[in-house]
Amino acid sequence: MVLEATMICIDNSEWMRNGDYSPSRFQAQADAVNLICGAKTQSNPENTVGVLTMAGKGVRVLVTPTSDLGKILACMHGLEIGGEMNLAAGIQVAQLALKHRQNKKQQQRIIVFAGSPIKHDKKSLEMIGRKLKKNSVALDIVNFGEDDEGKMEKLEALLAAVNNNDTSHIVHVSAGPNALSDVLMSTPIFTGDGEGGSGFAAAAAAAAAAGGVSGFEFGVDPNLDPELALALRVSMEEERARQEAAAKKAAEEASKQEKGGEEQSSSQEATMTEHASGGTSEADNKKNDLSDDDNALLQQALAMSMDEPASSHDLQDMEMPDVAADDPELALALQLSVQDSTKDSSSQTDMTSWGRSK
Amino acid sequence: MSAAESAAAIQRNLVDLLDFIDWSGVECLNQSSSHSLSNALKQGYREDEGLNLESDADEQLLIYIPFTQVIKLHSIVIKGSEEDGPKTVKLFTNKEHMGFSNVSDFPPSDTAVLSPDNLKGKPVVLKYVKFQNVRSLTIFIEDNQSCSEITKVQKIALYGSTVETTDMKGLKKIEEH
């Protein structure tokens, strides 16, 4: 939330036509500039940002430091590529523009995009750096594009001359699949000297990291709609807990099935019949009704009992007479279930098999 | 001369203007981060010989001191070492947010070339007329005694008096009956 006036120096020289950064170096640079402007104005509403171009016919200030984001984005339109970058003049004009800022309480910062080779020597760059430090101007350098020999050293020397207590930074971005803006988003240039980052930068970084349009859980931004995000998260946890309980029950029942055999299934059927008497007798309808019900256990049991007669057909047929003979109550239960099954159109085969086994 | 000076001092009820400095607005350009202005201005720090204000990128320093009320500035004490202490000091009154680029844009209210005596603690008496109505003071240290890269200042003290102004703390609310 540091109160800051920033001047962004854009490289619009011929070297920016190259397409090694997608879609072109110049376009990648423009995207990065737009993002930086947004981040700065959002982190503190009183922050101002200005833009100037370093190549073309000469150094030209497109917009003096202003907090109006629309004005800044508008001036990025219709920029032409051409000429050679003049780094020294660009930085000096930026310093002058910052000197005449309206709010003298703002800290001064210059962000330079250095994409083309640098024709100045190290000494003069160091002198410029010292002058910036003397006037307490911080400098951020984005080294991308052309990488001729000595460029990195010169820029590092410039940074060393300016740097006062780590307020100035340099970032090297090499050509590759990652967009220039994405790489910059995780650097202190965006996040602002490790204050924890503005919400804008952090959110944008998260989105970029996820690689999708919405990088948030459930597709809802907690910043925008915290209640909705919370509700979604809670219901997700509940669903998970319910499924775990159901799975646990199913596992228990599966193990009991192996031991108890028919007793378990018949008791299930007994409970089924109870419900059947309450609701419709159609098994299919039962299934449909219960699918919306909170009782997952019942759902599980229903599913199993539906499946059981079809699958373990023969098993039941063989075991039935023995069990019925031993337990009269069980026999009664079975009889009840049989009566209901006779009404069931979908379990016709079951009925006949039941009847036969009886 | 010194007798007349001290007599004049007693007459004018000189006070150390430390209490009237508005600390929230104090700024210093080109100071080294480890050796800051507090070492030279603040009570206790300025008496410590080991704690100095040092310059950073080159030998110049620009110090801006606003006051909480209007004061009259009589004299100034700048203490430093013989080699690295300040030499040419220019004072500007009531000019906010000056930079190194506009120090030469207007003439200073006063200029002092410090002698070794001054650096030991002898006050520099300023031009009376120019310092009657001071809201803020800018001290521009142009160079040092030996023209070295770093200027070191051990103590800066300002002496003067206040203009007749209402002491807000003394005001008490009238009790309603």
Automatic annotation (TrEMBL), chain A:
One of its GO terms (cellular component) is nucleus. Keywords: Proteasome. Residues 337-358 have a biased composition (Low complexity). One of its GO terms (biological process) is proteasome-mediated ubiquitin-dependent protein catabolic process. It comes from the Eukaryota. Residues 243-358 are annotated as: Disordered. Residues 243-262 have a biased composition (Basic and acidic residues). PANTHER family: 26S PROTEASOME NON-ATPASE REGULATORY SUBUNIT 4, 26S PROTEASOME NON-ATPASE REGULATORY SUBUNIT 4 HOMOLOG ISOFORM X1. This is 26S proteasome non-ATPase regulatory subunit 4 homolog. It comes from Durio zibethinus (Durian).
TrEMBL record, chain B:
One of its GO terms (cellular component) is cytoplasm. Gene3D superfamilies: PITH domain (2.60.120.470). PROSITE patterns: PITH (PS51532). It comes from the Eukaryota. InterPro entries: Galactose-bd-like_sf (IPR008979), PITH1-like (IPR045099), PITH_dom (IPR010400), PITH_dom_sf (IPR037047). Residues 6-177 form the PITH domain. Pfam families: PITH. Signal peptide: none annotated. Belongs to the PITHD1 family. This is PITH domain-containing protein At3g04780-like. It comes from Durio zibethinus (Durian). The lineage of its organism: Eukaryota, Viridiplantae, Streptophyta, Embryophyta, Tracheophyta. The gene is LOC111277195.
